[in-house]
Every structure is written in structure tokens, then in C-alpha cells.
Amino acid sequence: MLRKFKITIDGKEYLVEMEEIGGAPQVAPAVQAAPAPVAPAPVAPATEAAPTSAVVPASADAQVSPMPGTILKVLVKEGDAVKANQPVMILEAMKMENEVVANNDGTVAGIHVATGQIVNAGDALFTLN
């Protein structure tokens, strides 16, 4: 059997429903909440078009994204010389910042993404010669 009690704690009143132990359990009536108004989804402002999957020359070494995420920062520019394991980009995935490093020594032949761009696993990020 459900029993209702009014309890005052620190001057604030609370209405509490309690079930008597040993009595037959009863289901409390469900309270219908008013439906929340549905607001239209915000539209993102137009940004400069980021390069999409570019044609990668056969002689170039295309480095791909290891996981889906967002490019936070590009640390190099085209023409820069990079060493193996040198950080080239910062990729945010699952609220963690991950360094995307060069697989080998070379020169950056092209950068195929822009800061803020969302990428999927396997998308070309940059190429090395």
C-alpha cells in the first residue's frame, strides 16, 4: 500500500510516496509530462570548402586517417621536409587529441584536409614524396 507523506527538511517541503513493506505492492500512477517543444536544428555557418578526396599521384605516399574524427590542427605545409614519426596533424577523436605522424621521411606533396574538417577512417590526409 502506497502512503503519502509531507516532509520538511531545512524549511523546504517535500511530498514523498512510500510503499509499506509487507503490504501488496502497488504501481504508482504514471505522470504525463508535457511534450517538449521541438526546436529546428541549428544550421552551421558556411565555411570555406575544404579539399575532398584528391587524386593522389602514384609516386606519392598517401597517409590516411587511422580513425574517424576532426582535424584540429595541421602542423606542416606543402613543401616541408618531414622525418619518420614527426607529427604532421592533430586529429580529435572521442574527445582525445591524437597526433598523426609521418610514416617515413619525405617532403609534403599535398595536404588533403583543412582544420575543422571531419574525416573518416581511411580518408587521405596528406601525401609525401
UniProtKB/TrEMBL annotation:
Per the UniProt record, one Pfam family is Biotin_lipoyl
Which InterPro entries does the annotation name?
A: Biotin_BS (IPR001882), Biotin_Carboxyl_Carrier/Decarb (IPR050709), Biotin_lipoyl (IPR000089), Single_hybrid_motif (IPR011053)
Domain of life assignment: Bacteria
Tell me which UniProt keywords the record has, alphabetically: Biotin
Question: Record's PROSITE patterns?
Answer: BIOTIN (PS00188), BIOTINYL_LIPOYL (PS50968)
The UniProt record lists the Lipoyl-binding domain at: 53-129
- NCBIfam families linked: PRK06549.1
Matching PANTHER family, A to Z? OXALOACETATE DECARBOXYLASE ALPHA CHAIN
Record protein name field: Acetyl-CoA carboxylase biotin carboxyl carrier protein subunit
Q: What is the lineage of its organism?
A: Bacteria, Bacillati, Bacillota, Bacilli, Lactobacillales
